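Batch job 17 of 40 flagged for manual review because the log was empty.
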Amino acid sequence: MKLYFIVNPAAKNGRCKKVWKRLEKVLRQKHISYEVFFTEKQGDGKRIARQIIESTSETAAIIAIGGDGTVHEIANGVFPFKHGIVGYIPAGTGNDFSRGIRIPNHPRK
């Protein structure tokens, strides 16, 4: 399964960018293959996720690094395809979604 990360670098005043840099370092150290995309404006998460999911018939793990809006867009980009898995590393301001489904706010967890 290929890993794709969609990062909202503007979320929480740039915190996502810092979270991504730490995660990228770990991915490289462990020789884990991935692709990363950065959003620039509203709607990019959905558009990028849709492009990823339509470009492959294999299972694709698309991981959002951002806030509630980022994960919402990515989920909408993957739906209704059955070969997409949405992951989420909360790094936004409110992170209501992650609290609601009990995803830890600390990226390592």
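Reviewer: the log was empty due to a logging misconfiguration, but the result itself is present. The chain has a mean pLDDT of 87. Unflagging and moving on to job 18.
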